[in-house]
Design brief:
By secondary structure, this protein is mostly helical. It is built from 12 helices and 3 strands. Helix 3 (about 35-45) runs antiparallel to helix 8 and helix 8 (about 135-150) packs antiparallel against helix 9 (about 155-165).
Length: about 240
């Protein structure tokens, strides 16, 4: 299993992570000594840390995130096909969507202490950007992209199967997303379809924050996330809890 915290992290907590090189502790967490540590440094660099240096976020972890997103989808799909050999595309697709969703990525990133290693601007650090689900999720994909580029698919596979094992083991049945479950709940009771509204959109372009409400059955739920789709899911999940569904 992936260690929740590496001992090297604790020794660095009293110092700014914008100055020390945090790659050593992340190498231990990822289970790989990088031949090209600059890949991992890039993966740990939030866009805010490079604003004003280069063009359009060059040097940030966005390129690594692009790679890691594709690698994660492949490795999770491969794992699901092995683990559930009798399931068809629909059920496997729902499992995949959950395992690569922003909430799960943020959960995994939190468990391995990834946020502590991110290099961010001083202003964003004070604003708590390292704790934002969207930032954690993007950084985890970026770290996986760097791991794949430096160590290959096998190293990436080992990390994913270790880091995602707890979430994977919770999936006894193919999951249904919150919006689907809410729609089924109201339809069974002859109620109108849920109505979603975007209440606000705040934050900089690279880290937006959407607040969405959903109303059904005389109640309303609210969700906040880095994308409209994710915020809708969180709002639906809150409403389901309120309805006892």
């Amino acid at each position: 299993m992936v260690a929740v915290r590496d001992p090297l992290v604790a020794s660095r907590q009293d110092h700014s992570l914008n100055t020390p090189d945090p790659t050593g502790s992340l190498e231990a967490i990822l289970g790989h000594a990088f031949a090209r540590p600059e890949l991992l440094r890039e993966a740990l660099t939030h866009r805010s840390a490079v604003n004003g240096r280069g063009r359009r976020g060059r040097g940030s972890n966005e390129r690594m995130e692009f790679v890691g997103d594709r690698v994660l989808g492949l490795l999770i799909a491969e794992w699901l096909a092995e683990r559930f050999p009798h399931e068809q595309e629909g059920d496997l697709g729902r499992r995949l969507a959950l395992l690569v969703s922003q909430p799960v990525l943020a959960e995994v990133a939190e468990a391995i202490g990834l946020g502590e290693a991110l290099s961010v601007s001083p202003g964003e650090a004070k604003a708590g950007v390292r704790r934002r689900a969207t930032v954690l999720a993007d950084a985890l994909e970026a770290a996986l992209g760097a791991l794949y580029l430096d160590g290959g698919l096998e190293r990436a596979r080992d990390f994913v199967r270790s880091a995602w094992e707890t979430v994977m083991s919770r999936q006894e049945e193919p999951p249904k997303d919150a919006k689907t479950r809410l729609q089924e709940w109201v339809q069974k009771r002859g109620l109108g379809l849920p109505e979603y509204d975007v209440m606000s959109r705040a934050g900089p372009p690279h880290a937006p924050e959407f607040v969405v409400t959903v109303a059904a059955g005389g109640f309303a739920g609210t969700g906040s996330a880095g994308s409209k789709r994710a915020a809708e899911q969180l709002a639906a999940a809150e409403l389901l809890r309120m309805l006892g569904a």
